[in-house]
Structures are given as structure tokens and as C-alpha cells.
Design goal:
Blueprint: H1 2-8, H2 12-32, H3 34-41, H4 46-73, H5 80-90, H6 100-111, H7 117-146, H8 148-153, H9 155-158, H10 161-167, H11 170-183, H12 195-218, H13 220-223, H14 231-247, H15 257-266, H16 272-304, H17 317-321
Helix pairs in contact: 1-6, 3-16, 4-5, 4-7, 4-12, 4-16, 5-6, 5-16, 6-7, 7-12, 7-14, 12-14, 14-15, 15-16
Length: about 325
């Protein structure tokens, strides 16, 4: 089913329609939360909100680089500009209800740059597993020190961590990926994940989680007036909330579940109203970040599709036939899906 959706998404009119749906979903979410947003804004400083959004952008960029490291490890290295265009644009799909839109968009956008669909599919699966494992690991380390109560309440999410780590062992992971591709009637991977490639992805993911936790912590002085002691709770609470939200794939971007878990984590050391306000502003900041980075991704796509200057029009016909979006960004010997 995912492959069919991915192929359908390759049609220009479908992409435009999906983009319109995404923008409507984001607008509706902001409109529905506007009373709470204005109440929280009245209690915050503009520089706290600006720094929080900057931290969210840095965290999202680190997560993109983690996926790029996985894709390169599987055999399709991409320049950061092209990887950003694919990832940032595809992330807009997570605001549409359902689990497949962002997934299918990333697979299809990667195929525009001659990344085989099966390889891109595998890279997204691996990057999600790395995101969850590092997030749960970070929560396991930080939450008991900051809030033992929240660690006990969500032990079931932390209990998944050993299974995810075992599955990420490269020999096991390669076998699982090929079996998943076989179920989807796709050819096996010609290059399996390696320890160095996964280590690089884990390092970028860890940096991303730290920046995303910092995004929450920066908002505290305007509402709660707390500083350093809350940093561990913000990092661990957000990592736990995001990782658990990924398990609830039927909700757009984990909405609801992620916010409730983050509120429960912050409420162990903050008044419930303050925790709710911070969670709301974190959600709004994340939405603004996704929209801003999505706009950057779309702009990068237009730049890549810009016609070449007339001086280069004398190249060989075979070179002209190659897609302009793939030239100079993907190795010429990349196998097709």
C-alpha cells in the first residue's frame, strides 16, 4: 500500500493537493489553540520564544542529518542541501492524519534524485528506529534523576528500549529490513547498515534531542521562572513524549498523546497550568518550525529545478535527458528501485 501511495504522490497535481491539505491542517490547529496561545504568549518574553524556535530548527536539522547519514550508509550519499529539501518538505506530511503521508513523501522525493525507493524506504525505517531508541535511552537516563514519578508512570515505553537496541544491531537490522522488503515484494538491499554509519546517525540524533529539549527549557523563565534543575526534565520529558507519540501513528504528528505526556512530565515539578502553557507553546513552536523548514525545502526544490544557463546548452544529448534534479547530486551508478 505504501508503495502505491508513493507512486501516486509522484504526480504533480497530487503533490499540490497534499500541500494544500497540509497547510489547512496546520492552520486549523493554530486556530483551534489560539485562545491558549494568546494566554501563554502574554506570559512569555519575545526573546524566549525566538530562541526556542531557533533551538527547534537546530534540532530538526540534526534529525535530518541523522537520516542523511543512514541513507549514505545504505549507498546513496546526498549533499546536505538536497537531503534538507527532501526531508523538510516531506515532514509537512505528518500533519495530515495517518502514518503514511510523510513516509511516502520522503520516499517519492528521494526518488526524484535517483535514490531507489526500497533504499529510501529502508533509510526512513532505520532513522525512525534510531530516533525512538536514542529518545527512550535519553529519557531513561534523565527522568529518574529529574522525576522518578514520570519514569515509573511510563515504564512501558522505556521497556521497549532493549528490543529496539537489539533490532538496531547491524546484522539483525539488515535481515529485518530485507524481510520487510520481501513482504512488500521489493528486492533486498544491496548494501546493509554498518556500525560506523549507525554510530554517525546516533550522534546526530542525540544532538537533535538535546536541542529539542533545550527548546522546552528556554520557555521556562517566562512562565515558571526556573532554570538549570529543569533541564534534565525538559530533555527527558520531551524525548519520552515524542517517542511515545510516534507509536500512535493514527494521529497527525502524535498530536494529543505527545502533549499530554509532556504536560505530565513537566507537572511533576511545575503547576499544571504552567506545564500546559509550555506544552502548547512547544507545539506551536514545532509547527512554526516545520512550516518554515518546509518552505525552505520547497524553495530548494525550485532552485534545483531552475533551468541551466544558455552557455551550458551544448552538452551531450544523453546528459540533457537526465533529470536536472538528479544531476550532480547522486552517483551515476545508483541502482533503480
Amino acid at each position: 500500500m505504501l508503495i502505491r501511495i508513493s507512486r501516486l504522490a509522484g504526480r504533480p497535481w497530487v503533490r499540490l493537493a497534499l500541500l494544500a491539505v497540509v497547510l489547512c491542517c496546520c492552520g486549523y490547529r493554530l486556530h483551534a489553540q489560539w485562545p491558549q496561545i494568546t494566554s501563554a504568549l502574554d506570559r512569555m518574553h519575545w526573546y524566549s520564544i525566538s530562541l526556542s524556535i531557533a533551538a527547534a530548527i537546530a534540532g530538526s536539522a540534526c534529525m535530518m542529518l541523522a537520516w542523511r547519514a543512514v541513507l549514505a550508509d545504505l549507498g546513496s550519499p546526498l549533499p546536505a542541501r538536497i537531503a534538507g529539501r527532501i526531508n523538510f518538505t516531506a515532514q509537512l506530511g505528518k500533519y495530515v492524519p495517518g502514518a503514511v503521508w510523510a513516509f511516502a513523501a520522503q520516499v517519492e522525493l528521494g526518488h526524484d534524485y535517483q535514490v531507489p525507493r526500497r533504499r529510501n524506504f529502508a533509510s526512513v525505517v532505520v532513522s525512525l528506529a534510531v530516533t525512538v531508541s536514542v529518545g527512550l535511552g535519553l529519557a531513561l537516563v534523565t527522568l529518574p534523576a529529574a522525576s522518578p514519578e514520570i519514569a515509573r508512570r511510563y515504564w512501558w515505553a522505556l521497556a521497549v528500549l532493549p528490543l529496539v537496541i537489539a533490532a538496531l544491531c547491524p546484522p539483525v537490522l539488515g535481515t529485518l529490513l530485507n524481510r520487510l522488503l520481501a513482504v512488500l515484494h521489493r528486492a533486498p538491499l544491496d548494501r546493509r547498515p554498518s556500525f560506523p554509519g549507525l554510530a554517525k546517525a546516533v550522534a546526530w540524533t542525540l544532538a537533535g534531542w538535546l536541542m529539542l529539549g533545550l527548546q522546552v527549557w528556554i520557555l521556562l523563565p517566562g512562565i515558571a521562572g526556573l532554570h538549570g534543575p529543569m533541564l534534565l526534565l525538559c530533555i527527558g520529558g520531551y524525548a519520552l513524549a515524542f517517542s511515545a507519540g510516534l507509536l500512535l501513528v493514527v494521529l497527525p504528528s502524535g498530536i494529543g498523546a505527545r502533549d499530554l505526556i509532556l504536560i505530565a512530565a513537566l507537572a511533576t515539578l511545575l503547576p499544571y497550568g504552567s506545564a500546559s502553557a509550555i506544552a502548547i507553546m512547544t507545539r506551536v513552536g514545532t509547527t512554526i518550525t516545520d512550516l518554515a523548514l518546509g518552505a525552505v525545502g520547497i524553495a530548494l526544490g525550485h532552485q534545483a529545478l531552475r533551468p541551466r544557463p544558455a552557455a551550458t546548452a551544448t552538452v551531450a544529448p544523453a546528459a540533457v535527458a537526465a533529470p536536472a534534479t538528479a544531476a550532480a547530486t547522486v552517483t551515476a551508478n545508483a541502482p533503480s528501485a
